[in-house]
Every structure is written in C-alpha cells, then in structure tokens.
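Q: What residues go here?
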C-alpha cells in the first residue's frame, strides 16, 4: 500500500464515504453558523463577555446532552440518533436565517440557537464517531477518525472565508448566508439517511442514568483512557477557548474589519488541514501517543504566543501553527481513547471525550469576564499556559507507566471488529 492510499484507506469503504460526505456538509454548515453567531454577537453588543456567554450557553447545552448522547449511541441504532440530531442543526440555521431576513434578530436568539445546536451536537458527535468504528473496524479506526477530522478542518479553511465574503457582499449578507448553512445541513441529513443501520452494541433494559454512571466508572478505572480524557479536558477548556474571542481579538484589539476574522480563522484551519493529511497516516501507529503529547504542548504554546502577538500578521502565522497543533492533538486523543475502549462502552467514552467541548463553552464566559478585567491578550497567555502544563503532566505520568504503546489490557483490545454489512 503506497503512502497516499494508506492515508485514505477508510474511504475505500462505500458506507464510510457516505458518512464522510455527510459530515463534510454538516461541518461546512456548522462552521458557517459559528462564524455568523460570533459576528452577530459582537455587532449586537461589542462586549467580550457577550461572546463568552454565547459559547457558555452552547457548552452548557452540550454538557447536559452529551452523556445522554453517549448512552443513546450505545443503546439505539446510530443512524436514527444521527438523523434526529441533524434535524436540530437544520432547525438552528433555519430559525436564525428567518430572524435575520425579517430583521427581528436579537441577542437572545443567538442564545436559543446555541442551546439547540449544543443539544444536537451532544447526540450527533458520539454517534458519528462510533458509526465510523462500525463501518471500518478497529484496524482502520485511527485513519477513519483522522479523515473525519480532515473534513472538519477542511471546512474550517473554506467556511469562514466563504461566510465572511458573503456577509461583506451587499447582494447577500448574513441572512442568505444562514440559508446556505441550513441547506448544507439538509444535505448532511440526506447522506445520513443513506447509511446502514447497525444494531445497538448494548442490550438489556434501558437505564440511561445508570448507564452514564457505568461509563464514568469505566473511564475512571481505565488509566490509559482516564489520563487522555483529563488532558483533553484541560486543552479544550482553556487553550481551545481562544476561538471564542477571535472577533474580539481581530476587531477589538487589532481594529480590523469582519473579513479579517474570516482570514484569521482560515489561516488556523489551513494549518489544521495540513496537519490532518499528515496525521491520517500516523493515527494507527505506535508513535501516536508521543505525537499527541508534543502536539498538545505546541498548541498551548501557540495560544501563549497569540496573547503576545504584536499585530495581525504575526497572529496569522501563529494561527497556522496552532491549527496544526490542535488538529493533531484532538485526532490522536480521540483515536487512542476509542482504540482502548471496549465495544459496549465506545459511545459513552466518546461522549465523555466530547464533554471537553462542553467545557470549552462553559469556560468561555468566566474567561470573557476575566478578559474584560485584565485584557484579552493577558488572558490568552494564561489559557495557553494552563493547557501546556496539563499536557506536559500527562507526558510525565504516561512515561512513568513504563509500558509499550500498545492497546491496553481492558477487555479484549486486540479484537478486530468486522465492518458491518448494509442492513
């Protein structure tokens, strides 16, 4: 197998291509919605803590729904979970499009849209990743997760720039751009409906809260997974929260226009896209754990550097490197956590990993308040420092385990999952 075919191995499976294509549409629409919400929140309030509140509400909704999404993924057909949650994403974009087009948009509507999207993501995220495992098997799981991450980060390159260009074009504006985001979500819904419908991995009487507790106990009792989860939480809750304040940094600190927010975000995503191609061929290798640690430290360092950046040009260069660091860290942490998990816990392990994104939203509000008091750039330095120290601590703890980088001793980790047939 040559290098390029190895990097795209999972795409040789037809159903995974459908899953990947649906994810591409969904990510494109979602990234546009994130960009538009940030622009609207800043335009309506011009306050950093208001930006933080929008993401806080998203995080709170994600925090509530994600554990239930993990249980639903393990207990229900994954296609059904994805369809229902994707409908929520469609509704979020459609509602905001109507509000802007009818000129009744208000800040509270952004909060409602954040709630709806957070609830939907709590179910969509774990189901999508666990579905990939069903489709390609564990031997290509890392490659599949890498390719899904590549789709997400590819849209981060194009979606903000496209949204920024459309918003700045007098013939289009924010409302029609929201319409486009809704249409992309509908495209994802159609692709999802074309997927096979694998049976639930967990059977028996439904007891969602007990199942959540079982998942937490399983992660806590499995050191390789537990340590990755805690480290990912720290990185997402602090370093990744920088994305909440991009409009404030570019428009507020550097005094530039809305289009530059799109340029900055696209620069970060370009680095993520480059890293995604690279990591797709390494996600299943024995070096994955060490690469993940190095990438997490690099990402934290780049958030510190962003806080010290003297101007927009330097910030763009930093954003490219930060995008590569965060993509590599997130892809490999997800891969390692799922590779180490038993089949019947995969949905719940993925949901616990996704709680880091809820934490990112939850910390955005207090960090926004802190930024109002001590300045945004000083806050960025603090955020990056916490994340980098957390990853360094993980590296030292994991190194003391003195074990080869192999799948762990929980359950039957060497088991190969046969890709499912269409049903």
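A:
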């Amino acid at each position: 197998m040559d290098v390029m075919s190895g990097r795209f191995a999972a795409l040789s499976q037809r159903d995974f291509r459908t899953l990947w294509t649906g994810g591409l549409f969904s990510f494109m629409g979602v990234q546009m919605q994130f960009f538009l919400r940030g622009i609207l929140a800043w335009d309506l309030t011009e306050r950093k803590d208001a930006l933080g509140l929008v993401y806080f509400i998203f995080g709170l909704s994600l925090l509530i729904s994600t554990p239930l999404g993990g249980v639903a993924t393990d207990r229900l057909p994954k296609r059904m979970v994805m369809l229902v949650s994707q409908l929520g994403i469609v509704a979020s974009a459609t509602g905001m499009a109507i509000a802007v087009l009818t000129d009744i948009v208000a800040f509270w509507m952004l909060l409602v849209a954040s709630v709806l999207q957070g609830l939907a993501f709590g179910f969509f995220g774990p189901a999508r990743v666990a579905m990939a495992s069903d489709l390609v098997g564990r031997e290509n799981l890392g490659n599949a997760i890498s390719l899904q991450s590549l789709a997400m980060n590819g849209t981060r390159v194009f979606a903000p720039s496209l949204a920024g260009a459309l918003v700045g074009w007098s013939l289009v504006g924010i409302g029609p751009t929201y319409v486009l985001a809704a249409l992309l979500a509908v495209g994802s819904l159609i692709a999802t409906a074309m997927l096979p419908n694998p049976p639930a991995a967990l059977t028996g009487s439904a007891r969602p809260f007990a199942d959540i507790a079982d998942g937490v106990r399983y992660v806590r009792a499995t050191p390789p997974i537990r340590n990755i989860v805690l480290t990912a939480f720290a990185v997402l809750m602090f370093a990744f929260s920088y994305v909440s304040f991009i409009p404030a940094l570019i428009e507020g600190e550097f005094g530039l226009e809305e289009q530059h927010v799109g340029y900055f975000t696209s620069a970060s995503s370009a680095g993520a896209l480059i890293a995604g191609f690279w990591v797709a061929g390494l996600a299943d290798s024995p070096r994955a754990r060490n690469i993940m640690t190095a990438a997490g430290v690099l990402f934290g360092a780049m958030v510190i550097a962003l806080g010290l950046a003297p101007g927009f040009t330097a910030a763009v260069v930093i954003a490219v490197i930060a995008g590569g660091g965060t993509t590599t860290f997130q892809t490999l942490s997800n891969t390692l956590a799922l590779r180490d998990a038993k089949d019947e816990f995969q949905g719940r392990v993925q949901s616990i990993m996704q709680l880091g994104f809820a934490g990112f939203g939850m910390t955005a509000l207090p960090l926004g308040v802190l930024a109002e008091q001590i300045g945004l750039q000083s806050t960025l330095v603090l955020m990056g420092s916490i994340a980098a120290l957390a990853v360094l601590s993980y590296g030292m703890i994991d190194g003391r385990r003195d074990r080869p980088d192999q799948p762990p001793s929980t359950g039957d980790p060497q088991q190969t999952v046969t890709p499912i047939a269409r049903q």
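A: Context that may help when evaluating the design: Residues 56 and 361 are 4 Å apart (CA to CA). The two ends are 30 Å apart (CA to CA).
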